[in-house]
Batch of 2 targets.
Target 1
Amino acid sequence: MTTAAPKRELPTRHAYGETLVELGREDDRIVVLEADISKSTQTYRFAEAFPDRFFNVGVAEQNMMCMAAGAAICGRIPFVSTYAVFGSMRACEQMRTSVAYPKLNVNIAVSHAGLTAYDDGVTHQAVEDLGIVRSIPNMTVLQPCDAPSTRKAVRAAVEIDGPVYLRLTRIAMPILYDDNVDFQIGKAIRLRTGGDVTIVAVGDMVFQAREAAERLAAQGIEVDLLDMHTIKPLDVDALLDSATKTGAVVTAEDHNVLGGLGSAVAEALGEHCPTPLLRVGLQDTFAQSGSYGDLLRHYGMDASHLVEAAQRVMRRKQ
Amino acid sequence: MARGQAHDVDSLREIARQLRIDSLRMIHLAGGGHPGGSLSAADLVTALYFHEMNLRSEEPDWPDRDRFVLSKGHGCPVLYAALARLGYFDPQHLDTLRKFGTILQGHPDMNKTPGLDATTGSLGQGLSVGLGMALIGRLDRRAYRVFVMLGCGELDEGQVWEAAMCAAKYRVANLTAVIDYNQLQLDGTNDEIMPLEPLEDKWRSFNWNALRIDGHDMPAILDALRAAREHEQGPTVIIAKTIKGKGVSFMEDQLDWHGVAPNAEQLEAALVELGP
């Protein structure tokens, strides 16, 4: 595992937009479809570099999703860009039937994951998308936490035979990894090794989890911390290894606790290794406008709440 | 079937008749399916697959082949019958329509059926898929053309009109939409459920080249397909007025034959009408 001290920060959507341009230079098959928010999703960079391979279809996500299917059938590797709310829900059945069912190499890269859309409010905060896309066969589901792992994830998505859902943040994320991070789809990255409690985190919540782990360490509680950047296929081996060792698990996701990482972890533990579990995330509620920090605090998702959850779940150990 | 080696009108009519017979047999054996929309589309599918489209059945993945997207996927029996007749797979498979383990799913699955260019059947999606194909064909500087067959009830879907706007934006002259306009949808007539007229005006206002023909008049179908091929300014839609259940008197224009399989007696009566 390679980490570097946080020295700067970047929204993961920016890392996505930059990597698309690199990929566009390397591989003629890459095309990008966009639904009128290229300045936000950062696909404008690709549009400037490769105007012939960029299709702005207007505010019409359903058409975009199926156009990408047609492009993939004809041998291209399309990226579809929009916000997570629209990619996963407005165009959901198009993704399911025209993309996932024929197992096409369409990469659905969506920004404004969860509360990272903060002051835009509920319309633009996707808190259901992981549950939706995870339940669709053939889908791979990724949410890297920082820019370097996002760059790796974008490249890995191209290599996957089948559709990938790549969840990106609106707001800047600290740089956690260096450029050589060993990002492999389906392989969790262990950020801390500890024997007292496991925290499984995804995306922006990795940073809350790191802070929580430091505070817990100060109390003498050692956290086994996993960056579960791949929600599907879940790294069950890494999860079970850790849960067996610690006997207590907390999940941390910027998403409803129904359907996303917490559910995936609960399913795996329930089937293979029943272990006390607490799921930190939105507790089956919509959020509201506000700063990212205020929202995390109010909805019980910041580092303090993770510390508390870890302490509570540890008391349930047998 | 490469364009130019095509059949004459009489041969095409005979092929269409055979496809109707095959479709009804398949649906009868399956005990389920959509006879009405298979029969209404039979002449259009015949004209495309046995005259207009550039294909190599011995090389189903030929990169320069014309593409066909059956957006009204429930009409697939007639398409399966055409593909079998062209040699994409053994016609014996036709007897397995909708049965467990079949290569002929209830709605088209491109990964199971040789010769299919897209997975379709969820209404409203096929024109977008075809548009994506057409844009890539142009980007790849390939000469292939893309045909998308839509049902009329399907035009209720908003996504069709998203695709229509977008196809006009990109002036994709290699994209042709063919509407099987039998004027019946599942719950009633188009006029009762969702009026579509003035339909040519709608497409023209979306900057499409719109042609209206009798979808059972083989020479008219061939003329329209040629006109679409020669129209280089943008996409063409062929609004083909058809009769649901065409060719079998007791099925024609009957709502009840949208999604019901004929029993043995009904099949026999239908085959008598369609001829030997």
Target 2
Amino acid sequence: MADKNEILAGLAEIVNEETGLETEEVQLDKSFTEDLDIDSISMMTIVVNAEEKFDVKIPDEEVKNLSTVGDAVDFIANAQG
Amino acid sequence: MTATLNQPTPVAATQVMGLGAYRPTEIVDNEQICQWIDSSDEWIRKRTGIQTRHRAPADVSVTDMAEGAAREALEQAGLQGSDLDAVIISTVTHPFQTPSAAADLAHRLGATPAAAFDVSAACAGYCYGVAQADALVRSGLAEHVLVIGAEKLSDFIDNHERTISFLLGDGAGAVVIGPSATPGISPSIIRSNGEKWETISMESSLLNFRDTLAEARRAQDASALLDTENRLWPTLRQEGQTVFRWAVWEMAKVAQEALDVAGITADDLSAFVPHQANIRIIDEMVKQLELPESVLVGRDIVDAGNTSAASIPLALHRLAKENPEISGGYALQIGFGAGLVYGAQVIRIP
């Protein structure tokens, strides 16, 4: 179990590893596609790495609902619930 | 007392004896693709790795391409068509429901009366074909089997759709499989997952096309007819994200399993030749498998695009030509695609 700040920090590391973006740029209100310029393939890589890191399942059909970093943090927090 | 049946005498080991390739001369670059879809050369390269793909002209068929690849593979194997006991063509783009492309090819090669049949396993078709050929030879039912992955995908795409058409190219790659003194083909993994049948699929069926065409004719509505032809001719579609996830993380496990059942590790490989679906799938698989840098990786997709069943033998042929020192080394090959189906094995490179 991790709190939302820990999830955000963990997610930022995953995004950094996949895209090279600085971790500070990964904020809750940032859109994966619009703000962070993450394409669908990188998004899948991030999703799979997040599943492993946080020990949750993020189904394919759920991924399209995760438009912002905050959406992803909330989903992971709830899934860990 | 019931008489005892004869059964064929098995042979202990098999190998790939020759490789062949056919690449159509017509080249389609990303600039041309961008006339059809709103994209850019940079976008396509970044997301797929593809710079060009080969496409065959109207007068070159799947069987013509298969023949070109087959003749080269036979030559390297030191065999003639008459030495073949079976001809297998893996294809999803031979435009006849029947007869098979393989029967025509067997005749062209002088292989008659060799067994001849087509395999429909999409991008896994070549690995399925190798598994089948290996089993035929080891069982003693055949001595030499020709396996070809041959595709003219350009006949079954819609240049204006964005999920898959711009990735696809035409071509053929062939191997000849025969008996060996030492093991040259590992136990194959060939499997399916029909639950994901729709993730890569034709958008409509031929029956749908026929019926809508007939309806437009009855109504004597020429505009509907034109629209019908544009919309309903069966072309390929895919759910890219779902396929990407499956291809990388599920298929990397299968590739590892293929190594395990072969009784070797990644350190023993000379080459890794995955289906050429997308450079980022290939790169991610290499990462997942933790391949040592000494292992050459097939990246033919950059110039050839995704050629479905032809992609692995084309990439293998290129690696072997450009790096003759890998002859005698092991190549891990894995195909995966519409079905969903997948197949993998390790072969000794001829």
